Amino acid sequence: MSERGNCFENSARFLLNAGAGAGLTLVHAQCVGRGPIEGRKYAHAFLLTEGGIVLDMTSEKVVVVTQGEYYELGQVKEVVRYDYAAMLKKLRKTKHWGPWHKTMQAIDP
């Protein structure tokens, strides 16, 4: 199954528009689903502020929550962080929004 939302593109685009000095880090992580995908692992992207606040760009509305709450609710694992320069390098090299880490997958079958 290759279901994929728009979190990778939305998060990277937001950081691109915010710029290198915005105090944001792009995070790619393996999470565990809730609701219709309960218990299934999936790759996810979001932004993390210097103050430990997560900005989740998956839906029409930006979800803003503390890092601790977000990591607990999403069972966030295998975190890979990209600063602005590292994100640009990955975008140029791969020509896609992510995930860029080999162990992450769109969604478990």
Strand segment count: 5
What is the makeup of the main sheet?
5 strands, antiparallel
Shape: globular
Q: Which spans have pLDDT < 50 for at least 5 consecutive residues?
A: none
In total, the number of domains comes to 1
| Distinct helical segment count | 3
Which structural category fits the helices and strands?
Answer: alpha+beta
- The end-to-end span amounts to 5 Å
Helix % is: 25-40%
Task: Quote the beta fraction.
Answer: 25-35%
Going across the major beta sheet, what is the strand order?
Answer: 4-3-2-1-5
Supply Rg.
13 Å
Structural overview:
The protein has one domain (7-94). The protein is built from three helices and five strands; from the N terminus they run αββββαβα. The protein has a five-stranded antiparallel beta sheet. It is α+β, with helices and mostly antiparallel strands. The protein is globular, with a radius of gyration of 13 Å. A hairpin with an 8-residue loop joins strand 1 (24-32) and strand 2 (41-49). The protein starts with 6 loop residues before the first helix and ends in a 15-residue tail after the last helix.
